[in-house]
Design a protein that fits this description.
By secondary structure, this protein is α/β, with parallel strands linked by helices. 34% of the residues lie in helices and 14% in strands. Strand 4, helix 7 and strand 5 form a beta-alpha-beta unit.
Length: 389
């Protein structure tokens, strides 16, 4: 390899220079091909070349290192790289490339707007967790940029924070970037008024997590909450159904909830215990439903699984030895579930009898599946069933 300080007197005949030249031409063509794939998806005309990344002459290669700097990688490729960067890497990446410092600034602005809630970018990128807890203006003057300081109260951590007007643009700037680079946001269900206030701030992909409150909607119906959520036009990656509706005896209201769910772009549904019958009846009507989390195996509607044409993952949080018959029915239907790839049985601690039940190697193998522990160091944490690749 040539050092950054070395020059070659005969670049036209030097094997190293010729190899580097060939390598750069390959990288150049691969980059152009990838760019044109995305341009085709966007219905844009193809590019025939990259003005910012023209192939170097052999004499230029001889004066440079073979190592490619991120600074000369085309913006389209860098944008693609950002989509895969985690919370630990995003800040160093942005500081290494000046054109991406606006991302680190957006992360910093939101993180410092809610002191005590965010500790680094972990809850900000690539999934932004909307803040929860009481946020009050400090009565005393401060030296901050906007003249205010905020006090965060951890005791109300299950109550979503009302976003102060002075912080709305900061959050919007961050969520707009998350949409662009394939990120997401997590919200805690609360009142219809709160949802209405944050609706314009939601990125394209949203998680609606469980609220420990029994009924967090302050007099509003859950179906009205779902209809309001649909106005965001977001893809709901995972939606937790409040515990209060599991075993609910108001059939009419549950039908309204099921109807409202059908209007959402749903990728996942989570239930603390069992799936209400009214929702079971419409599971097959969700074209994007890829993941289901259920609290208990008992009573699970095995017969609906083959009808969910996009379902790839299923998770149970509780299994009893008495569930053996249902588990056998589950194994029997696996061959009919073309898209299902994984079934997870997760717990704080399974007993040996339950683990033995879940590790039925012969039965699983007969339908093309296998089992493995979720944690090799602690087998009691659960078992994963996966389809043979």
């Amino acid at each position: 390899m040539l050092s950054s300080q070395s020059t070659c007197k005969s670049p036209n005949t030097c094997p190293c220079c010729q190899a580097a030249f060939t390598q750069l031409e390959c990288v150049y063509q691969e980059t152009l091909d990838e760019i044109n794939i995305y341009r085709k998806l966007l219905r844009l005309p193809p590019k025939t070349g990259l003005a910012s990344s023209s192939p170097l002459s052999q004499s230029q290669i001889a004066r440079r290192s073979n190592a490619l700097s991120l600074q000369i990688v085309p913006p389209e490729v860098l944008d693609r790289i950002v989509c895969f960067i985690d919370s630990e890497t995003i800040l160093p990446f942005c500081h290494a490339i000046p054109s991406y410092k606006h991302i680190s600034k957006a992360i910093y602005d939101v993180g410092t707007a809610f002191p005590g809630y965010y500790d680094g970018p972990t809850l900000l990128w690539p999934n932004f967790e909307f803040p929860c807890g009481s946020l009050e203006k400090n009565e005393t003057e401060t030296n901050s940029d906007d003249g205010f300081s905020d006090v965060y109260d951890y005791e109300d951590e299950h109550i979503p924070t009302d976003i102060p007007m002075r912080h709305i643009l900061k959050i919007y700037s961050l969520t707009k970037l998350l949409t662009r680079y394939g990120g997401s946001a997590t919200i805690v269900p609360s009142s219809l008024e709160y949802l209405d206030n944050i609706l314009p701030l939601l990125p394209k992909t949203v998680y609606v997590q469980e609220n420990p409150q029994e009924y967090p909607f302050e007099g509003d119906s859950f179906s009205a909450y779902l209809e309001k959520l649909g106005e965001a036009k977001s893809y709901i990656k995972m939606l937790h159904i409040p515990r209060v509706f599991e075993g609910y005896d108001d059939h009419e209201e549950m039908e309204q909830i099921a109807e409202a769910l059908l209007k959402l772009e749903l990728g996942g549904l989570a239930f603390s215990t069992a799936i209400p019958d009214e929702i079971v009846d419409v599971l097959q009507k969700f074209p994007l439903l890829a993941e289901i989390h259920v609290g208990s195996v008992q009573g699970f509607p095995v017969e609906v699984l083959p009808l969910c044409k996009n379902l790839s993952s299923l998770m149970f949080l509780d299994v009893e030895v008495t569930d053996r018959e249902l588990l056998m029915a589950l194994i029997a239907c696996l061959s009919e579930c073309a898209t299902l790839r994984e079934i997870v049985f997760q717990s704080i601690s399974f007993g040996e009898d339950v683990l033995a039940l879940l590790n039925e190697t012969d039965l699983l193998g007969s339908v093309g599946w296998k089992h493995s522990p979720l944690d090799a160091d602690d087998l009691s944490l659960g078992v994963s069933w996966t389809r043979f690749s």
